[in-house]
Amino acid sequence: DTAVSQTPKYLVTQMGNDKSIKCEQNLGHDTMYWYKQDSKKFLKIMFSYNNKELIINETVPNRFSPKSPDKAHLNLHINSLELGDSAVYFCASSQDPHGVSQPQHFGDGTRLSIL
Amino acid sequence: EDQVTQSPEALRLQEGESSSLNCSYTVSGLRGLFWYRQDPGKGPEFLFTLYSAGEEKEKERLKATLTKKESFLHITAPKPEDSATYLCAVHLWGYGGATNKLIFGTGTLLAVQP
Predict the structure, then answer these.
(1) B12–A contact, CB cutoff 8 A
(2) What is the 3-state secondary structure (H, E, C) of A46-97?
(3) Measured between CB atoms, which of B46, B89, B97 is closest to A105?
(4) Which residues of chain A make contact with B85, given a CB cutoff of 8 A?
(5) Angle at A42 between CA B32 and CA A35, to 5 degrees
(6) Is the pLDDT score of A108 beyond 90?
(7) Is the dihedral of CA B15, B16, B22, B23 positive or negative?
(8) Residues on chain A touching B32 (C-beta within 8 angstroms)
(9) Which of A72, A105, B36, B82 could crosslink B78 through cysteines, CB 3.0-4.6 Å?
């Protein structure tokens, strides 16, 4: 059983379009995240949600809007796609962030290519 | 500014040739340090968590150690299946509500040749 699953795996689209990426985790974790990995493999956090509440919102353009319908799902909607949005987007989840540091568990990523 | 630096960027080893990867950090307050392995086309896979200087963790051919300024991932007698990108990440105190923010290094690409 896949612990953190993302769809789609690949997304190729034109500049200016709007697209969504979906993420689901079956680990029973309270916190979910979106990361962006650029062409140099640098992984940077974008958002995190704890029990459907937005916790981290890095300096991400407001064209990016996360939505968490329940604590097992975190989707990412991107409006007016730009060339610079091309990257691999990873979803992750972890136990409650308070207390001892808990590892984050990642999905296999969505490779977004903007033409 | 909080920073995580990994070296070398890339490392090529012969099968059985032991070596170490380095993760150095300058942060305001370390809560935990994580090592991950990432295979091509896959997400990072959790390996270890280290919490305090002097701590060590082992798993098969891998051993992670932590000092106050850096962490090492020692690979003993590596096999070709150990080839991957190894990422370290630090979890910091003092981010207010953002208590589970990780800062990642840029990774070391390890290639083990038979």
Answers:
(1) no
(2) EEEEECCEEEEECCCCCCEEEEEEECCEEEEEECCCCHHHCEEEEEEEECCC
(3) B46
(4) 41
(5) 75
(6) yes
(7) positive
(8) 100-101
(9) B82
Instruction: Note whether A44 contacts B44, CB cutoff 8 Å.
Output: no
User: What is the least distance, in Å, from the CA of B49 to any CA of chain A?
Assistant: 7
Is residue B97 scored above 60 in pLDDT? no
Residues of chain A with Cβ-Cβ distance to B100 below 8 Å are: 31, 48, 55-56, 94, 97, 101-102, 104
Instruction: State residue B91's pLDDT score.
Output: 85
Sequence-distant (≥ 6) Cβ neighbours of residue A52 within 8 angstroms: A68, A69, A70, A71
Mean pLDDT score, B55-75: 96
Structure tokens at A83: 């060339």
Q: Is B20 on the interface with A (CB under 8 A)?
A: no
Residue type, A93: S
CB-based contact B45 A48, cutoff 8 Å: no
Asked whether residue B84 carries a pLDDT value surpassing 80, the answer given is yes
Residue B18 Cα, gap to closest chain A Cα (Å): 25
Residue B1 token pair: 């500014």
Bridge-based pairing state of the strands B10-14 and B108-113: parallel
What mean pLDDT do residues B9-13 have? 97
Interchain contact, A104 vs B46, CB within 8 Å: yes
Whether residue B85 contacts residue B107, with contact meaning beta carbons closer than 8 Å, is answered with: yes
Give me chain B's average pLDDT, please: 91
Q: CB burial class (10 A; 0-12, 13-18, 19+) of residue B76? A: middle
